[in-house]
Specification:
Oligomer: single chain
Structural class: mainly beta
CATH superfamily of the largest domain: TolB, C-terminal domain
Mean pLDDT: 88
CATH topology of the largest domain: Neuraminidase
CATH architecture of the largest domain: 6 Propeller
Order of helices and strands: HEEEEEEEEEEEEEEEEEEEEEEEEE
Number of helices: 1
Largest sheet: 6 strands, mixed
Shape: globular
Number of domains: 2
Radius of gyration: 22 Å
CATH class of the largest domain: Mainly Beta
Distance between the termini: 75 Å
Helix content: 10-25%
């Protein structure tokens, strides 16, 4: 080997090492800044006990301080009242009272992501790895668990994002595989776009669910009715994202893209679909863009998370009448990912 070739190899190796060191340093610095932001101010919430014994709303706390990220609960009849804090730390959470699904991030030199199933004592009874950043989770009435992760991109407004959505049993056994592999039927015809994404699962029962399917190459986004037994996704309506079935099973709340013509960025407005008539009611009382999977507090009220404009790490859960008859109000301060446990 000539001296020039050896020098080039040593130089290339040195550049590679420098890139790795710079990347590692950037990651560590970013994590330190994130941790400091979370601890920037003391937690100012009233903590109590006994809330979990009755009807409640479970959520991820976002109050700055030592309780940031901890799962907590408020009484269903006192949403802004004292909260009971649990040992669990989650990015997304869903619960039926006996079983809680927790999607979480394990930060380190190599960041990993995990779905955990927790019992009433907050012990892990099952877990499985997630392929990317946690996005959505929901349980079915009989204990199936749907999870969505971002494989690439961290927002549904990002061009070229990719998701993976799967369904597991509560014991961790995989039921569905990636829902992208299900047969997609558009107007009764089989369609197989290579760039399809599926997210926002909401269960009707142990077999049937609703979800969003998007193909960026076809520039289409559909509400689909999925069937775990038939492994099919049947389109019902265009332009529906992140559906959520009402407690009485008659309506779907979702986010509707209400951007102005020619605008590049979506502006998601809450909307409600009547499944019997397929009539859509857009809830214009919410003027902000709502990038969340809406939850039903009851058959008349919707819940969703919104970031604070002046505190980026802090979010609040807002309430909005499902008929749009009144303006949204803060329901649970310093909270995210609400899950209603009715009893």
């Amino acid at each position: 080997m000539s001296g020039h070739a050896a020098l080039r190899r040593r130089t290339a190796f040195a550049v590679l090492v420098l890139v790795v060191l710079v990347g590692t340093g950037w990651y560590v610095t970013a994590e330190i800044r994130r941790a400091r932001a979370e601890q920037a101010a003391p937690t100012q919430v009233e903590v109590t006990e006994g809330v979990l014994d009755g009807p409640h709303v479970l959520f991820r706390g976002t109050a700055p301080g030592e309780l940031y990220g901890r799962v907590a609960a408020v009484a269903l009849d006192d949403l802004s009242g004292p909260r009971q804090v649990t040992p669990a730390v989650c990015d997304r959470v869903d619960s039926d009272g006996a079983t809680t699904v927790c999607l979480r991030t394990h930060r380190g030199v190599v960041t990993t992501y995990e779905a955990q199933v927790l019992d009433a004592a907050w012990r892990t009874t099952a877990s499985w790895p997630l392929p990317g950043l946690p996005s959505r989770t929901q349980q079915s009435p009989d204990g199936l668990v749907a999870t969505t992760s971002f494989v690439t991109g961290h927002s549904y407004a990002t061009t070229g994002f990719s998701t993976e959505t799967t369904v597991h049993d509560a014991d961790g056994a995989e039921v569905s595989g990636n829902l992208e592999d299900f047969t997609l039927l558009v107007d009764g015809k089989r369609v197989a776009p290579v760039d399809r994404n599926v997210w926002g699962v909401t269960f009707a029962d142990e077999r049937v669910f609703y979800a969003t399917v998007q193909s960026q190459s076809l520039d289409r986004t559909w509400l689909v009715r999925g069937d775990l037994a038939e492994r099919t996704l049947v389109t019902l309506l265009d332009g529906v994202e992140c559906p959520s079935l009402s407690p009485d099973g008659t309506r779907l709340a979702f986010k509707h893209d209400a951007r102005a013509p020619g605008a590049a960025t979506p502006r998601w407005t809450p909307a409600v679909l009547d499944l019997a008539t397929m009539a859509v009611t857009v809830l214009d009382a919410e003027e902000r863009s709502v990038d969340d999977q809406i939850t039903w507090l009851d058959d008349a009220t919707l819940l969703y998370g919104m970031p604070r404009t002046d505190e980026p790490a802090t979010t609040d859960v807002w309430a909005l009448p499902a008929d749009g008859a009144a303006d949204p109000v803060v329901a649970i301060p310093q909270a995210w990912s609400p899950s209603v446990v009715r009893g």
